[in-house]
Write a structure and sequence with these properties.
The longest helix has 17 residues, at 225-241. By secondary structure, the protein is α/β, with parallel strands linked by helices. The two termini are 30 Å apart. The protein is built from 12 helices and 10 strands. It is globular, with a radius of gyration of 19 Å. The relative contact order is 0.12. Strand 7, helix 9 (188-201) and strand 8 form a beta-alpha-beta unit.
């Protein structure tokens, strides 16, 4: 089983590998983790130059996640050279579907691997993928998944598949999965609805494609004031009871309630 991280990242912000002048700005945008993207955000003709520029920046940069190209591309093997660099905190493998591909990333020196589930094959092999060495988290690549499945919308049509990622993550002992992007950058209502949906389904984080999306993601996924107050009441009551049965707000406090309260306070403490 993988060890979970109580204070796992909540917001992941993409920045194209072709825009090194944006790397430091992205790191200052408030996201828990910046993802430097060598895949979708980089045109085929620019792949090698982007990789070289990223390698140079990583040598003196800060810890980031790097999304490499998928195993079915000509750039995958060359991207593997980045996996073991000191400031690559996580390698994100797109279109994850085969255990053998994950093993190649690990053998290349990746400290941690996050898997983008974007296809029917990825869903079919979900449990085996989640159980791979060094895998720390699953990400739902909703846009590519819809294309692969012939699904027209990424709302209720994906409910079943979202639940599958949450379930597989729990069974493998991983942190709660990361929900996909919201492409409506300037529609706050759509973004808010997407964030809340992911949280309701048991996701623990969300991908962001613009800095303005970071603050709403953090604000929604971080515990609210009433949740923190409830968690403190639970912990105080349980501590005073010294193992005896106790009620808080008219409800019995059992082990699952204690675990939830501890988790809320752990995340709140991390956020200051």
């Amino acid at each position: 089983m993988h060890a979970t991280t109580p204070a796992a990242p909540i917001s992941y912000l993409f920045v194209p590998a072709t825009r090194p002048e944006r790397f430091d700005k992205a790191l200052a945008a408030g996201a828990d983790r910046v993802i430097i993207d060598l895949e979708d955000a980089v045109a085929p003709a620019d792949k090698d130059l982007a990789r070289d520029a990223l390698a140079n920046w990583l040598a003196a940069g800060q810890p980031v996640a790097v999304r490499i190209n998928s195993s079915d591309t000509e750039w995958f093997a060359r991207d593997l050279a980045l996996c073991g660099q000191a400031n690559v905190a996580e390698v994100i493998l797109p279109k994850a579907a085969e255990v053998a591909d994950v093993k190649r990333v690990v053998q290349a020196g990746a400290k941690a691997v996050m898997l983008l589930i974007e296809s029917a094959q990825g869903i079919a092999h979900l449990n085996a993928l989640a159980a791979c060495e060094k895998v720390t988290r699953l990400i739902f690549g909703t846009i590519d998944f819809c294309v692969d499945m012939g699904i027209e919308n990424d709302d209720r049509e994906l409910d079943y598949f979202r639940s599958q990622l949450v379930l597989a993550s729990k069974l493998a002992g991983l942190d709660a999965p990361v929900d996909g992007v919201t492409t409506a950058i300037d529609d706050a209502a759509v973004l808010s609805a997407d964030i809340l949906r992911g949280k309701r389904f048991g996701f623990g984080a969300k991908l962001c494609i613009h800095p303005k999306q970071v603050a709403p993601v953090n604000a929604t996924y971080l515990p609210q004031a009433d949740e923190i107050a409830w968690a403190r009441r639970v912990m105080d009551a349980a501590g005073a009871a010294d193992g005896a049965a106790v009620q808080v707000d008219g409800k019995m406090v059992d082990k699952p309630v204690l675990i939830r309260a501890q988790r809320i306070l752990s995340v709140a403490q991390r956020a200051g």
